[in-house]
Amino acid sequence: MLFRMSDTPVKQQSTAAFYGQAVASFAVALAATAIGIFNLQTDSWVRAFLGIAVLYLVTSAFTLAKVIRDRQEAGQLVNRVDQARLEKLLAEHDPLQKL
Fold first, then answer.
1. Which terminus of the chain has fewer CB atoms gathered within 10 Å of its CB, N or C?
2. End-to-end alpha carbon distance in the chain
3. 51-97 per-position pLDDT tens digit
4. Cβ pair 30, 58 in contact under 8 A
5. Whole-prediction pTM value?
6. Cα-based distances in Å from 81 to 55, 77, 99
7. Contact 55, 63 (CB under 8 A)
8. Which residue from 60, 39, 66, 64 is spatially nearest to 50, judged by alpha carbons?
């Protein structure tokens, strides 16, 4: 039996524990930052500016993570197409065929 890489799909999925840890870490970091900004001994406009800066940083981080994930998924799709083409060429190639 001929084994092909495309016969076994690779599934990269994180565990529930890893997902939970990532969500909890994000929540703790965001809460700690919000509490720190709220408790600053400064004018309210400075706290508001820092709050908006944190929100901007968080949304930018989510956008960057999505872009990186999308590029990785697109690369995997191209690699799978290239692998399928290579397997087809190898399957059709007959080394004993006369030139």
1. C
2. 29
3. 999 999 999 999 999 999 888 887 777 777 778 888 887 787 777 77
4. yes
5. 0.59
6. 39, 6, 29
7. no
8. 39
| DSSP assignment letter at 11 | -
Tokens matching residue 52: 């908006």
Number of CB atoms found within 10 A of residue 77's CB: 10
Place of tokens 């084994």: 3
Q: Which tokens is 75 given?
A: 């690369």
Asked if residues 10 and 27 have their Cβ atoms less than 8 Å apart, the reply is: no
Tokens of 48: 């508001």
| Cα torsion angle, 36, 42, 47, 53, sign | negative
Task: Output the 3-class SS for 19-44.
Answer: HHHHHHHHHHHHHHHHHHHHCCCCCH
